[in-house]
């Protein structure tokens, strides 16, 4: 038993709330390996309690629990009754026999003269561990891997001992959640955006739910809107669950281990909701959201729920889970994320404001004018100079990529994995969108598919914006910003041309422009993903190529001015 020294307010569902002077039953100290947290029971409820607010009362025990433990340890009395003589014929035979049961004499072993008595192989004497297998790149990079055990190989070896079999069966290849390498300010901005998106997705889905909304004739006009709202909720909840899971990985590395204990149930609630949403939307997608299957005249009386009912029920209970998880992460952000870098008083561009920056278009136009004014004999040498200048810029960019800070490299690796998943969703949406165009579907059909394209592309734009805000390296920030802006422009062009194609349907040229805009959007998303993957690669030794000097007869030219970082940074 322990007495409460102070009042305690529960901050998580598995924590007990008590007042000063209450007597609690201590079931386990330092439960789950969490130092300072005790598993206690109070008024029929069990939960964890901070040990520094309790004091063990000497000589006071819970009589009911002690009596129960004492009863469970007392063995039941066993009655030993001798068997009757007529039921044991074997004993009767032994009593009648007057001879002893003597074992047989050992058989003579013939020894072969001239042979040595060689010891057994070392494998029969020693239990040598197996050689470690090199971890493959796929298993190391996969976010969701199955648990792999070595029990099959251990059981196949008949000469292995029980100790080696037990140790082999307890070896698992469990992928660990990636930490979130974001500064505090960027993490809070991302959290606020994810929370707003999840809340908006829940509100959007529940706006279609009303009394009798699934009756025949009422759901059919809205089934496409409900499908888009369900996909939006699934995507928003997935992003928030990934963010919360990565934050939990940060909490495991924090100095205060109690943060991880309190955050774990909040993250589990989000992941459970994500699983339910994923299963429900997958089941509805398998049935193609057919209105004939979803419409019904009356509610089921036995309380059974189909996939759409489960999706709506999960959305209704999701608002509180999102609010609690976001509030806890926001309140402990200073302990969960690294400090934001100090903003310099003067930007690096101010120190070089005497350098006049030009865009790639302006430089190309000026080079074309110079080339047109040159004689034919000098144009070849001028083209060589332009190629050498471009190559030197690429080499300097690669050398700058090798100097990326470790935090930026980890940041790029984290979001490159997410962009790969989002890019796959975008490719699937674009393929379905183009398929409806090829089949000549009316505007209401390709507009519904276009919503999925916009939703998938918007998530990738959000990733690019987050990386640009969180990165420290100026070259990486400029490159990601350029790719993100190009993707955003392609997304705006796709939306504009889709609306124009719907208004001008069945104009062939408008539909062709819409299809071309969708293909360009997929290409821009791949460029952003490649930029993140290249930034996440380990540094390599880069030897700059020597520039070939111009020929003796070439006219000396003014060096090309540096290009603007936003428009023309080479690939990292």
TrEMBL record:
Domain of life, per lineage: Eukaryota
Q: Tell where it localizes.
A: Cell junction, Focal adhesion; Cytoplasm
InterPro entries attached here? CAS_C (IPR021901), CAS_fam (IPR037362), Serine_rich_dom (IPR014928), Serine_rich_sf (IPR038319), SH3-like_dom_sf (IPR036028), SH3_domain (IPR001452)
Domain SH3 stretches: 1-59
Compositional bias of kind Low complexity: 133-171, 549-565
Name the GO terms of the biological process aspect.
cell adhesion; cell migration; cell surface receptor protein tyrosine kinase signaling pathway
Keyword list (alphabetical) reads: Cell adhesion, Cell junction, Cytoplasm, Phosphoprotein, SH3 domain
Do the record's keywords include Transport?
no
Known PROSITE patterns for this protein?
SH3
Any one Pfam family match given in the protein's UniProt record, by short name: SH3_9
Any one GO cellular component localisation term in the record? cytoplasm
Q: Where is this region: Disordered?
A: 129-172, 535-572
Q: Which family, according to the similarity comment?
A: Belongs to the CAS family.
Protein's UniProt name: Breast cancer anti-estrogen resistance protein 1 isoform X4
The gene from which this protein is expressed is: LOC113403044
């Amino acid at each position: 038993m322990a007495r409460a020294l102070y009042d305690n307010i529960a901050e998580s569902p598995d924590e007990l709330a008590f007042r000063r002077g209450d007597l609690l039953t201590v079931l386990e100290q330092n439960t789950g390996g969490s130092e300072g947290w005790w598993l206690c029971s109070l008024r029929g409820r069990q939960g964890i309690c901070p040990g520094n607010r309790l004091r063990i009362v000497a000589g006071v025990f819970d009589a009911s629990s002690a009596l129960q433990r004492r009863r469970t340890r007392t063995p039941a009395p066993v009655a030993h009754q001798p068997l009757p003589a007529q039921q044991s014929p074997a004993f009767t035979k032994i009593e009648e026999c007057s001879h002893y049961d003597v074992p047989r004499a050992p058989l003579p072993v013939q020894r072969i003269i001239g042979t040595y008595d060689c010891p057994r192989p070392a494998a029969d004497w020693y239990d040598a561990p197996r050689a470690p297998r090199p971890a493959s790149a796929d298993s190391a990079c996969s976010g969701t891997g199955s648990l792999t055990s070595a029990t099959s190989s251990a059981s196949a070896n008949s000469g292995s001992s029980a100790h080696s079999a037990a140790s082999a069966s307890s070896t698992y290849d469990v992928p660990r959640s990636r930490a979130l390498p974001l500064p505090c300010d960027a993490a809070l901005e991302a959290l606020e955006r994810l929370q707003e998106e999840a809340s908006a997705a829940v509100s959007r889905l529940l706006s279609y739910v009303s009394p009798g909304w699934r009756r025949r004739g009422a759901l059919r006009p809205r089934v496409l809107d409900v499908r888009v709202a369900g996909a939006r909720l699934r995507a928003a909840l997935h992003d928030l669950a990934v963010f919360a899971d990565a934050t939990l990985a940060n909490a495991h590395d924090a100095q205060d281990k109690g943060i991880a204990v309190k955050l774990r149930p909040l993250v589990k609630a989000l992941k459970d909701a994500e699983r339910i949403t994923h299963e429900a939307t997958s089941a509805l997608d398998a049935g193609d959201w057919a209105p004939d299957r979803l419409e019904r005249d009356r509610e089921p009386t036995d309380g059974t729920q189909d996939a759409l009912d489960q999706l709506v029920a999960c959305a209704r209970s999701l608002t509180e889970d999102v609010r609690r998880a976001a509030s806890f992460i926001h309140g402990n952000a200073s302990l969960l994320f690294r400090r934001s870098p100090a903003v310099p008083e003067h930007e690096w561009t101010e120190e070089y404001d005497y350098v006049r920056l030009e865009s790639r278009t302006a430089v190309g136009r000026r080079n074309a004018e110079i080339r047109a004014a040159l004689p034919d004999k000098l144009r070849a040498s001028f083209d060589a100079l332009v190629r050498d200048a471009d190559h030197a810029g690429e080499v300097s960019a690669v050398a700058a990529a090798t100097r990326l800070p470790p935090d930026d490299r980890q940041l790029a690796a984290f979001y490159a994995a997410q962009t790969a998943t989002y890019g796959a969703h975008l490719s699937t949406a674009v393929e379905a969108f183009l398929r409806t165009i090829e089949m000549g579907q009316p505007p209401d059909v390709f507009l519904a598919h276009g919503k999925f394209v916009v939703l998938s592309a918007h998530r990738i734009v959000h990733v690019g914006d987050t990386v640009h805000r969180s990165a420290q390296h100026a070259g990486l920030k400029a490159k990601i910003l350029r790719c993100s802006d190009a993707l955003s422009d392609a997304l705006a062009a796709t939306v504009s041309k889709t609306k124009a194609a719907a208004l001008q349907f069945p104009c062939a040229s408008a539909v062709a422009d819409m299809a071309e805009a969708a293909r360009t959007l997929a290409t821009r998303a791949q460029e952003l993903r490649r930029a993140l993957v290249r930034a996440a690669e380990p540094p390599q030794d880069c030897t700059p190529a020597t520039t070939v000097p111009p020929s003796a007869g070439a006219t000396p030219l003014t060096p090309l001015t540096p290009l603007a970082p936003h428009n023309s940074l080479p690939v990292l």
